[in-house]
Amino acid sequence: MFDKIQLPYAFDALEPYIDAETVETHYSKHLQKYVDNLNSLIKGYEQYTEGKSLDQLLANVNELPEEIRQGVIDQGGGVSNHNLYFALLSPNPKKAPEGKLLDEIHNTFGDLDTLKTEVSNAAIGQFGSGYGFLVKDKDGKLSVRNTLNQNSPAMNGVVPILTIDVWEHAYYLKYKNLRADYVKNIWNLIDWEKVEGLYLNYTI
Ligand SMILES: [Fe+2]
């Protein structure tokens, strides 16, 4: 059984950048549906899933029986991506990274603003529904990518450490068709302390 994270803030805590109705619907309805679908899908397949994290399943998705593989990509990715997305947002975020992550950002992007621009462009440029990501590889090198639907970068052997959900359900109530405005504003909510923690400590 997999579950959604406990939301570490109130539904209205991310206003004015993300409205309360969007957060409540996104977390309580959309994410919950992915959780329910995933758990019902993997019932009877415990031998493949027990003792593994969701990201471990996604990173080794070809080892799953074919009849549940695409479902785990879609529903499992939906849980993993949303759990990361909601965990990174905060009404009182640390505004910038420091230490080892900041050093690596300098090495890869030159500066933090360039990183933000590249992740934003990846998210805004994702045709249809998907995500923009900052990921690290096994050597701690950073890169930017986007994925379609609920595909997780974990399927490509890298570790997602920052994400922006650009499915319309993430922004449409407030921003309508203006995805770029939503992406610009979400940087006001991304907690770099969380990103640092994932960069330093999280492995799949
Ligand atoms: Fe979403």
Q: Give the tally of structural domains.
A: 1
**What is the averaged pLDDT score?**
98
Total number of helices: 9
CATH-derived topology: minor pseudopilin epsh fold
Outline type: globular
Task: Please explain how this structure is put together.
The chain has helices at residues 20-41, 46-49, 54-59, 66-88, 99-109, 112-125, 172-175, 179-186, 192-201, and strands spanning 130-136, 142-148, 159-165. It has a 3-stranded antiparallel β-sheet with strand order 2-1-3. The two termini are 18 Å apart. It has 204 residues and is mainly alpha-helical. It has a single domain (19-204), classed as Iron/manganese superoxide dismutase, C-terminal domain (minor pseudopilin epsh fold). The chain is built from 9 helices and 3 strands; from the N terminus they run ααααααβββααα.
Q: What descriptors fit this protein?
A:
binds fe (ii) ion, 204 residues, three-stranded antiparallel β-sheet, single chain, mainly alpha, minor pseudopilin epsh fold
Q: Which secondary structure elements does this structure contain, and how are they paired or packed?
A:
Blueprint: H1 20-41, H2 46-49, H3 54-59, H4 66-88, H5 99-109, H6 112-125, E1 130-136, E2 142-148, E3 159-165, H7 172-175, H8 179-186, H9 192-201
Antiparallel strand pairs: 1-2, 1-3
The structure holds fe (ii) ion (FE2).
The site of fe (ii) ion has 7 residues, from α1.
Put the structure in a nutshell.
Residues 5-90 form the Manganese/iron superoxide dismutase N-terminal domain. By secondary structure, this protein is mainly alpha-helical.
